[in-house]
Input
Amino acid sequence: MASHYEAPIREPLVTGEKSYHDVTVDVAAPVEGRANKQWWIVFSIALVAFLWGIGCIIYTISTGIGVWGLNKTVGWAWDITNFVWWVGIGHAGTLISAVLLLFRQKWRMAVNRSAEAMTIFSVVQAGLFPIIHMGRPWLAYWVLPIPNQFGSLWVNFNSPLLWDVFAISTYLSVSLVFWWTGLLPDFAMLRDRAVKPFQKKIYSLLSFGWTGRAKDWQRFEEVSLVLAGLATPLVLSVHTIVSFDFATSVIPGWHSTIYPPYFVAGAIFSGFAMVLTLLIIMRKVSNLEDYITRAHIEYMNKVILLTGGIVSVAYITEFFIAWYSGSNYEDYTYLSIGAATGPYWWAFWALIICNFVVPQTLWIKKLRRNFMWSFIVSIIINIGMWFERFDIIVINLSKGHLPSSWSMFSPTFVDIGIFLGTIGFFFVLFLLYARTFPVIAQAEVKTILKSSGERYKRLRDSGNSLVGTAADHRTSDIAEVTKETSSEKLVIDAEKQEHLIASLGRFNPEEDKADDLKKIDGIGPVMENTLNQIGIYTYEQVSRMSEKEYNLLDAITGKFPGRAQRDDWAGQAKNLIK
Amino acid sequence: MRVFVKIGIVLGMAAMAVSCQNKSTPNYQYMPNMYEPVGYETYQETDAFRNGKEGQLPVEGTVARGHIPYDYPNTLEGYSEAKVNLRNPLPFDAYRNADSTVTEDYLRKGEDLFNIYCAVCHGEKGNGKGILVDREKILGVPSYDDAGRAITEGSVYHVIRYGLNSMGSYANQLNEEERWQVTEYVMTLKADLESK
Output
């Protein structure tokens, strides 16, 4: 019996007969392989959307906000809708990596890397909107309390829009640091596996010289825990602050104390939906089915069900309070009769169906564990959550206190183009990420392999010992492997060899030290091996080579005639001796 | 050490960028959104009018609200007439004494204005020995107690309004009330000089 106790009721989190090396190989495969045609097609589409979005942004900034569909009544519409939507999507990443870490959820390990990447990339999208929806974005730096020549004119710290600046920028930077810290061991893994010098260089830069010593790991764990502890209140506060943009106003339908928790729940709801959308595809295209399993999908669906339930309760609360308050203005606002039957009825019902009705199907275990249905539901939730933000912003603004100010909003192609552009930008970043970053935190997955891997669970359940089971013949039996390959080497002409060694000097293994002959340009590992077999080990020997010796060497090896002379091994060896 | 070199390079570039300012021309501006007026500023040049100036002359004979035309003509007859007939209308209750004469405050304002506009030639005592006369930049400034001139309230006002001989008009510098304040102060200077 193994000493470890793991409840047999738990589903395995890594399926298949995976060893540590398998995890490495599987995670590194998409990075080390080449992009296939589909990747290029999708990437091109995303890039085109991104460029189109950039065009729309440039058009907006150079021409003016008037190219959007905003009017004097509805001053915020798609811009802030998309901002809140993207920020919300970003929240799942931090939730997965921070909150689930605090709750010791092992299943987070296969999804946290991509979820955090999604956070970073969607917060970048969100960060665009506060800038580009400004009338004069080139003065955006005025939101920062920088000492200046206007008599040190300061910002007013009473505005939630300023809090947004601090919240979003802090959120992005902390998420980035958290993400990158977790990436260090994985980048180091890619660095150590890299064959081409360029890749090696890049990943050595990215991995910050991670060597994986015990002390490093100990501090790594502490930092992760501290950052998780910091990121958790950050997740809650960032979207709370975003919700304050509305909740602190006097607009009927916006002024509501339920917004902070309700927005956060909605953020996690939409964020998890986006994680599902991405991971269901990613597990297929990156061949990670053994790591992102049906169980992971189910767990995420359960979180969606929970947060979707919270959001639904919030809808009902809003509806109830709108009636209970007795305020006439509330009748025309969000989630009240006016919204349901007014000119934006379609947006309202899209919200109810997408967020309230469809996710309830996840109560059924069969649907919750179904990849196809999870994918469809996740997309529906993303749409529904977009409508939620749109409804909150536009419906409430379009019918305010004064009937003479009532107005409708309809977007222009620029509104839509910028939104599509951010989606394109998001996928450009995510697709590049999926090809260059280790999309699964392999270092973390390796920590749960023996406790939650299917193979080990099976061994443990059947009462077998796990001793030695992690051994992988590809990594553990190196000596054997090299013996095999080196035994099929060339047969050396003894007479010629004697001739050559006589003129180069004999290598005495007891006194002399072998040099790294690979440093000589033109000598690779194979050639070095061959030279060693002949009896050439040192620069000293190589440096004595002249035309006669070169010819002898060529005659012995029979490979690359004239190569040694062309590369001037002797000259190089002389330089190396110095 | 190499770090300091890099910092030095960056600071040097910044210094070079900053030193691009030329003191003899206006400095570079960052996004001058509302620096140039859309409307017409008072003294600006403009192509809207034929003489290229924003300040255009009013139509001859119009009377602006709050202004009363001065009826004495700019002639010797006008001067003589003003000398005899023109009196300070003193329409301001604040500066009127019980006997309808001017107050200390009124004269003090007159003194301030006199020292700004008049004393440079006429001298602070009104004796025709201003700083420009001292330095011999101009000559022939008479004293206020010059018997041959026998200035009166009306003649002083008239001269400030139109100028006389070498003296130019001060109607541009002083409005009607200020002209009367200076006039009253000049009369006190005259009285001082005569009583000496």
